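Cross-posted from the bioinformatics board.
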Amino acid sequence: MINHIGILTSGGDAPGMNAALYGVVKTAQHYNIKVSGIKKGYEGLISNDLISLDIQTLQSSMHLGGTILRTARCDVFKTEQGRACAINTINKNKIDALIIIGGDGSFKGALWLAQKSNIQLIGIPGTIDNDLAGTDFTLGFDTAVNTSMQCIDKIRDTAESHNRVFVIEVMGRDSGYIAAYSGLTSGADSILIPESRNDIESLLNNLDDFHSDHALIVVVAEGDEVGTQEVCEKIKSVNPNIDLRLTKLGHLQRGGNPTASDRMLAIGLGSFSVHALLENKTGMMVGIINNRYCLTKFAGVIKKHEISEEVNKLLAIFCR
Amino acid sequence: MINHIGILTSGGDAPGMNAALYGVVKTAQHYNIKVSGIKKGYEGLISNDLISLDIQTLQSSMHLGGTILRTARCDVFKTEQGRACAINTINKNKIDALIIIGGDGSFKGALWLAQKSNIQLIGIPGTIDNDLAGTDFTLGFDTAVNTSMQCIDKIRDTAESHNRVFVIEVMGRDSGYIAAYSGLTSGADSILIPESRNDIESLLNNLDDFHSDHALIVVVAEGDEVGTQEVCEKIKSVNPNIDLRLTKLGHLQRGGNPTASDRMLAIGLGSFSVHALLENKTGMMVGIINNRYCLTKFAGVIKKHEISEEVNKLLAIFCR
Amino acid sequence: MINHIGILTSGGDAPGMNAALYGVVKTAQHYNIKVSGIKKGYEGLISNDLISLDIQTLQSSMHLGGTILRTARCDVFKTEQGRACAINTINKNKIDALIIIGGDGSFKGALWLAQKSNIQLIGIPGTIDNDLAGTDFTLGFDTAVNTSMQCIDKIRDTAESHNRVFVIEVMGRDSGYIAAYSGLTSGADSILIPESRNDIESLLNNLDDFHSDHALIVVVAEGDEVGTQEVCEKIKSVNPNIDLRLTKLGHLQRGGNPTASDRMLAIGLGSFSVHALLENKTGMMVGIINNRYCLTKFAGVIKKHEISEEVNKLLAIFCR
Amino acid sequence: MINHIGILTSGGDAPGMNAALYGVVKTAQHYNIKVSGIKKGYEGLISNDLISLDIQTLQSSMHLGGTILRTARCDVFKTEQGRACAINTINKNKIDALIIIGGDGSFKGALWLAQKSNIQLIGIPGTIDNDLAGTDFTLGFDTAVNTSMQCIDKIRDTAESHNRVFVIEVMGRDSGYIAAYSGLTSGADSILIPESRNDIESLLNNLDDFHSDHALIVVVAEGDEVGTQEVCEKIKSVNPNIDLRLTKLGHLQRGGNPTASDRMLAIGLGSFSVHALLENKTGMMVGIINNRYCLTKFAGVIKKHEISEEVNKLLAIFCR
């Protein structure tokens, strides 16, 4: 039986993490389960830095970006001493279950906890990159896409005023999801992502007969093998007269109030996490596949390296 | 073979209609098919009011709300004379296929066209209410939800400053989808929708011991059997000291730049429409079910009268 | 000498109040002055409900709408007993000065405090209505105007899609400032405000030859003598075929993150308040006139009943 | 007498240019004056590329960023041949007056036109940098500040989640106005601008005892003598353990829908321009000083190299 859930956010922050806290706490309250927030990811588990989470605070902050619990990458958690402290915190506070909001690394890092204690573990996928198997969408992705798209909309205003070419770098270290979605939805002419090849050739071919009579938007994923600087150089080499600008959107893509879609996903997954714990699930990540909540063992939560087929078809027609 | 597609927007406008035009035209261009825009829904078909749609205009306007083609409800289209003019426009302009962006009424109204001409017909579901069978989501719904949610976020600022109770009416004449999504995602305490019963009793019970020590947000769908005025009266009858305010969000929910999700849906469905025409489909609406594009005969495109099971479960825990 | 400032927000909340707290605390910190926040306006002064305000909390919340101190209208403050408690709080906590963020009523209500204690009093004008003498702009006005304008922008999307006439009510119980600014900046065709007459006749004359070939936007201040319902009826009586819709924006205009302009005003006035206290000013409201901070005695802080001449000239050309 | 005004946008685009067109055309219409839009700045004057501007198109686009007239920097305008063509366009179209929306260079470039024709010239200050003498604010500045501020708000979400230090570059090649305003209004800890010195030393001193227990935001103007890369290196040299990130906001600051303040300024200056022409003014820029419209001879429209005194005082307290 579960009386006390601990919850933490780990790794990179993502919009929707606060809404997920709300989803967990509201559902736990429904079953008379206490929830404690653990500050700064695994650091707080080691240092016994817990706060109580009440529903009104979460109703007031579920719409905010970032994470009110703070987050961190924690190396001490890998040491013997760190682990002993973590187990101590769990025992002292009689925590029966731990919900971890973060990425694949954050989930797997917790697995040994289950060996040294009776704790149940559930993960919630929180990363703007949408690069995890076991879920169609991760928390923060829809917000990051909307943020990037709105930035590109703004850049289009000035690009069209001058008929300029813009190369715009969006986030996605190993994944082209943000680039594909933000580029398609902002009417980009070309999108370069790590999952596909030859996009740059196709772009350069199109530029051969570009006469600066309209704007042209090129969206590049951070992790694409051809970096934005190189993209700019190649464009200039094809057509030196092109009026070209480069913008890297950077960390603003990680922040901002979560969208409705991310909040729905957050409270849905948060609520489903508690139900999963009540059904004695452990060592699993919750996710959403084809609009239904589902569970995947932590071992199966690996990085996705493919864009979905439907999106690939759109890229072939719209951006090449 | 299809050489010329006509496209029109009909019925109420919805954010994402311009993005759907972009989706259709970009895909048609890929297959060397000409696309003409028909102004003001069926009115333009009757009066032969056509414009050519070029890709750069659509890249510049796909991010805007409303419809650059304008829309209208057209009674003349039901008359003999009106129909003769419509057929004339189709023949004169050698239009092989018609794509209709609108609701169920707009699709069925066109069916007789297929009897009097060789034209192929494809519908794209465009309505903020998300109340159509044959698709999980309609164009404009995600934007309307985000708009409503952001308005409720703003109202929360002032509600919490005063610990007030707010009753907020959102759109949805027969459907509680906008209310359910915007209420859940804004942390509402109570949501009243036409698809469920007894919500009002549950709300009034909760108010019995409400001590004005926090804000309380009640979201009501326009089409709920208990109107917002009555909701306010019932609240006052339970607890006359409650500091209560009523806001009806109204038509601002129909406008605004479409979200990324609506734009993705729009270009996806727009593109899929052209592919459906190329595969000789006709008399069908395109839709998305479990993340895959699909087709439903116009006869099957009826109003949905149920909230999805997943959302219902959330409502039971979060808002009652 | 001032060692301890108390600060409270009173009356209706307005975006920018949190930024004003930041402005006060940051400046006070510069002079090694302690600042305590008083919760719920004068209620907290009576009940001794004080919190310490640290700079990092304020850096994290200065961008949010509402007021983290909460606000209230407080009748007990007018009673002998209430006043005794308030004086007690001031003495017990050794509060040397009180900064009141609110409207004219909130300032004057505090004047007797100065008679019963040595406390210095400074007011900061916080109201979205911009209806106070002694300052060109009040805290929250620019945000409310931007919010209303953006709502009207959204309504324009759907109005133009259908060539409809919209009557839109914005806030301003006695003042047409929000209506004038939000109407002018959203390209409204007509603006009805309490400060001027005959606007409705001018509107009705224009509608005589209105052929529904474009949208038409009418913005009405809440406090205009012709209410929105009556405006709609008059329009219908001139031209019954007009496709007319009414939207009342309501309380969403009070919330939302403050704009840059409101935040600048807030930190400017907050900072100037502390400097005024250091110069032994008391019983005065800070304000901004012609871009310079200034002081007005509480007695002179009366309601403005005129729109500025520059704005009136624009109204005469753009909206009649 | 003036029967025909030509209007163009020149140099860098700025949000509010479309609203200024609306302001000019609506006022001109009031006096039965025709207005023609000249495409792509002086290029369109040379190539006789004129369009008529009707009020409904402008009501529909006044809220959009960029410029519907397009803009360009035009070298041909400095040649004999180019100038002959420009004069030819003026004569052929019987243009009595030219309104130029742009920066100081765009105004002065037109002065010779007055020597070779009877044309009257009025300039409207359109640049996001707010770096022109003769006006307190330029078109686009308030929007650029709000855009930058909102981006910094988003970055704060992630900065606070990790207690990171962020260096954020905002626009302003020779001017620190955008940096000062967006930094102050987003609660930045430090702001580096070209107009002041020693800011970097003050920042580095503060970092000596920085223990990564909160976020820290440094805003740097593009034109500051210490570039952002160097700022990062200096920070790292003081404290190598600091978790530091750099973001350059870039061109997204030039786009987006204009704020209410920029639209008010735009229609105010647009309207005042027409009135100035009617009073036979020429060779002058309109501006706003202490809330009143005013005129400055083109020769006096030089770059501002100082932040206003009021803002400097705030910087001294809030960001050093």
